[in-house]
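HUMAN: Would you supply a protein with fold tokens?

ASSISTANT:
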Amino acid sequence: PPPQPPATAVATTSSAAAAPAPAAASTVQVRAAQVIVTTPPPENKDMPSLYCFVLVHKDSEEPWLMRAQLQKGVGIFGCNSYTFFSDQAVTIGFQSADFWVSAVVLSGEKAYLGAVPGSAEKAWHNTGIFIAAWHWIYQSGQHRNHDWTVKVDPDTVFLPTRLQLKLQQRRAPRVMTSYKHFMSYVDPTKPMYLVNCKQWYSLQGPLEVFSQPAADQFFQGIGLCQSKLDWRSWGEDWFVSRCMDLLKVQKREGWGLLDDMYCGSPYGETGHTYVEETRLKGAVCTDGKPAYHAYKTVANLTRCLDQALSDGDVIVSK
């Protein structure tokens, strides 16, 4: 397992105390809690702020993937604020000399790998445990301190400063000149979420980006969506997108934010999809996007991360 803290180590935070347990309608319970707050460097003070979270399965490679990102200060660890969730207690390392990064442990309905209805493929059925995480975030209120809420998968190489820059560049002007421009521009003060796979016109789970009002609307509406949607056989990204649509949250086109092996969109000017390019060359993470998926071993994730960082990205300081 990942290294454990010494017996005398106590996890402290620079934020409020632990969040209360989820609402009574939920069957999940929170056993531990922590929120880490980091501060962007002065040159990024005008950039949109990010609250990021991740959920790992302890009995998998995922804690090690997160440890590799922690060591380089990227992934959720480069966001302005983050929460690290797990289905079991796990500590992945230290962020500073006196702070070990331990998970917020969520108990309840466990994720499982199962068949996709109408398909021969398998996918994670993990909406149940994510409902626990969403309740925790809403009740802690951490997302309200930031412009955007970002969910990241553990096997995603994620560079937060790139996302901040792209969101800043897409800030909506006062006058829209076309529908295409309207769908490309974003406004963190309006409820909106970003679809990120052009091929399927879908929200892919490796990088989910919601404005602060959209996150509030979604968290408040989870119970309604549970009652209206046949969600138990879905992955959480299906639930999120369909719930957002049911709640009439606006969507915007987030093309250029994610290279995903499970999305068939082209990779640059290569003439290949991203998965085709990786089959030819291995890890390929050099086109300047904020996120790359799926890198399921530490070796492959590190190769991708090293390529991405070689472009000279500034890492948000702690």
